Amino acid sequence: MNIEKIRQDFPLLNSKNGHKPIVYLDNACQSLRPQAVIEAVQRYYEQTPACAGRSMHRLANEVSRQVDEARQTVAKFLHANRKEEIIFTRNTTEAINLVANALDWKPGDVVLLTDKEHNSNLIPWQMLARRFGVCLKFVPSNPDNTFNLSAYQQALQGGVRLVAMGFTSNLDGVSIPAEEVVRLAHKHGAQVLLDAAQTAPHQRLDVRRLDADWVAFSGHKMLAPSGIGVLYGKYRLLEAMQPFLVGGDTVASSTYEDCQFLPPPEKFEAGLQNYAGIIGLAAAIRYLQQIGLEAIEKHEIALNQYLSEALKSVPGLQIIGPADARLRGGIVSFFIPGVDHHRIALMLDQMAGIAVRSGQHCVHSWFNARDIPGSVRASLYFYNTQEETRQLVDALIKIRKVL
Amino acid sequence: MFCVVSFIVLSILSVFSAENRSLAREALDCVLRRVTLRPCNTGFDEKMKAKILGFVITKTETGARILNRFFEPLSWMFILLFLGSAFFAVRGVYLFYVTGSCNGLNQSGFCVFDPTGQSNQISNVGESCPVVLPGEDPVSLKGVNLSGFPVLNGDSQKRIVFIGSYGCEYSRKAYPVVRQLAEKSGASFTFLYYPVKESSDLLAKIGYCAYRQDAQKYWSLVDSFFTAERSQIEDEAFIRQTLTEAGYNPETIAFCANDPQTEWAVKKQLAEVVKTGFFGTPTVFIQNEVLIGPKPPRVYAIALDGLLYWAR
Ligand SMILES: Cc1ncc(COP(=O)(O)O)c(C=O)c1O
C-alpha cells in the first residue's frame, strides 16, 4: 500500500500553496472522498442526469444500467447471494428504521442490544417499545468494553425475537464476534441485524459467511457521497417484510383501492433514488477493493498500535476500551479527567489543524450510565500516516502542559 | 464575564466580517443566559476559550498556561479597561460635539475628530493675529464696560460678544458664522475690534468714527474688511474705496480718525477689551460661555441655544 500515492487521490490531503494539509482524524464520522468518487458523481450530473427505471430514453436506460451495476458491485462487496438483496437507503439509520418498521411486532417481543449502541440502533427500537410494547434488553460489555459472550448467551435464553447490534462500535472501535453472535442467535431462533456502519469501511464483510439476516451501513464513512446507505437483507426475509416507505417505484400497479408491490429491492426503494450517490458508492467500493480491505485493516491497526502507545506519554489520558489496540480497529477514544473534551478538540483544530470528534458520539446512553462527560475520538483511515498520529500526540502533550 | 467580553469585541469585529457576526450572535446568546443566571450552555465561551488558547499555545506555552489559569480575572480586567476607554470615547464624542474639542471647551490636546486642533487655534500664530499674554483671571466680560462698542439688536435677551481682528485668519473664519448665528437667532451682537498691532492701528479709529457717524452703514464696512484680501486691509486706497462703497465720505472719516480725541477714545476702548482677560482672537462670548478659537458652527449654536438648537 503506497500511502503517499493514495493521498494524492484526496484533494484535501494535498497541500496547496504551501499550506499544511488538514490532519483528518474524524473518519468514523465521515471519510474524505477520492477524486474517482467525485468524478463519478460529477459524470452522473454532467452526462446522465435522468430517472432510472421510469423513462425509456437513452439517458434513463444508461442510469438504469449504472444503478444495476452498482447494486451488483455492492452485492459482490458483501458477498451477497444476489443483487436483489441490496436495498439502497439514505444511510444506516434509515436502513435500521426500515427493518424496525417492516417487521410485524407483538407486545413482549424481545430486541437484544449491546450497552453501547449508537442512537441510530437504539432509538428505532425504543419507538417499537413505545408503540407495540416490544421489550429491549441490553448485553452488558466486559469491564474493558469488549463483548461479553457469556452474558449474551444468557440473554438469549429468555427468548429473543431480534438481535440488533453494532458490529463495530463507533465509541471505541471494538468489534463484536459477529459470526458467533449470529450463530448463537439463530440457534435460539432469533434473527440478527448488524449495524455495520463502522465495519464496512474498515474490514471485509462477508454476509454469507456471517449468515446475518440484515446488515446496514452508510456510504459517507467509506469514501462514497453522503446521503447513500445500504441495507442488505436475506431475500426470503425481504420478500416477507412489509414495505416501509411507500409510493412511486415501489408498486407494479395500483387501483384507487389497492396496489401490488414490486418484489425486493424495488418494494423498499420509494420515490426517485439518489442515483449520483448510488453510482458514487460503486466507485468508492471499487476504489476500496483496489487497495484491498485486508490491507486497510492491517494499516489501521498498525497505526492504532503506534498511536495508543504514544498516547501513554500524555499524563492522565485514558483510552476507552481494551488496552490492546488490535481490538480497537481504527478508533482511539480518550479522555483526560478534569479536562473538557471539547476544549481539547477545539485546541487541536486551532493549533495544529487536527480534526477529531469530541462529545458522546451518539452513544449518550453509555456515557450517561458511567457519568463520563464525553471523550475525544481520533478515528483513522487508510490514508492516515504515522506522522499525522505523531502530530496528534505532540499537540496533546502541549495541551496537557497548559490545561 | 468572558461572554460579555466576547460579545463586545465580536460586535465591533462583526462590522468587518459575517463570521464574526454569527459569533457575536452566539456570544449574545451566551450573555443573555448569563444574565438570567443559567449556565452558559451554548458552549460558546468554551469554544472561544479553546480557540484563543489554541492560538496562544502556538506562540508561547507559558502564555497559554497563564491565560488558562487566569482566564476569568483577565476577562474582568479586559472589560474594565474596555468600559474605561468606552467612557472616555463617549465623553470625547460628546465634548467634541458640544465644544469642538474632545477634551472640553478651548482645551488643546489631541482629538481624533479634529486632529489638527483647528477649533482651538487662536491668535498666537505669527504676525497676523494679535497676541496678548494671558492674565491670571479667567476670560470674562465681568467689569467690562461695553457701552460705546458697535452693537446690533442691542435690547435682545441673548447676547453675543465677538472680539476679532480683520487680519487674523481665525477671526475671519469665525466672524461670518457668528454673525449669521446672531442674525438668525435675533441675539444682540457686539463687535470688539482688536488690532494686530496695538500701536499702529488705523482701522480701529476708522471703525470708531464710522460707527459714530452712521451705525447702520457700519456693519457692511465690517463685513467688507473681514472678507477682503488680507494684504489689502491696511492699504489706504483700499480703505478709501471701501468707505465709499459703504456710503461714507472718506474725507470726513479721515478727519475724525486724525482727531486726538478719537485716538484717546479708541485707546480707552482697547483697554476695555484687554480687561476681558482674552489672550487671542477670535474670542466669542455667548451667554455664559467663552469660546476661544474658531469653532464649528454647531458649537456656537449650542452655546447660544443649547444642545437641541436645531429643533428650534
Ligand atoms: C455504529 C454506528 N451506527 C450508526 C450510525 C449512523 O449512521 P448514519 O448517520 O449514516 O445513519 C453511525 C454513525 O456514526 C455509527 O457509527
From TrEMBL, chain A:
GO molecular function: cysteine desulfurase activity; pyridoxal phosphate binding
Catalytic EC class: transferase
Pfam families tied to this protein: Aminotran_5 (PF00266)
Family matches, as SUPFAM superfamilies: PLP-dependent transferases
UniProt family annotation: Belongs to the class-V pyridoxal-phosphate-dependent aminotransferase family. Csd subfamily.
Listed cofactors: pyridoxal 5'-phosphate
InterPro entries membership: Aminotrans_V_dom, Cys_dSase_SufS, PyrdxlP-dep_Trfase, PyrdxlP-dep_Trfase_major, PyrdxlP-dep_Trfase_small
EC numbers, comma separated: 2.8.1.7
Protein name: cysteine desulfurase
GO biological process, any: cysteine metabolic process
Highest taxon listed in the record's lineage: Bacteria
Organism: Bellilinea caldifistulae
Keywords noted in UniProt: Pyridoxal phosphate, Transferase
Catalytic reaction equation(s): (sulfur carrier)-H + L-cysteine = (sulfur carrier)-SH + L-alanine
Span of domain Aminotransferase class V: 23-391
UniProtKB/TrEMBL annotation, chain B:
Keyword Glycoprotein (UniProt): no
Pfam family, one: DSBA
Signal sequence residues: 1-17
Domain DSBA-like thioredoxin: from-to ranges: 179-301
GO-annotated molecular function: oxidoreductase activity
Xref: Gene3D superfamilies: Glutaredoxin (3.40.30.10)
Domain of life per record: Bacteria
Record key words, sorted: Membrane, Signal, Transmembrane, Transmembrane helix
Transmembrane segments: 76-97
InterPro entries: DSBA-like_thioredoxin_dom, Thioredoxin-like_sf
Identification of the protein by name: DSBA-like thioredoxin domain-containing protein
Organism (species): Bellilinea caldifistulae
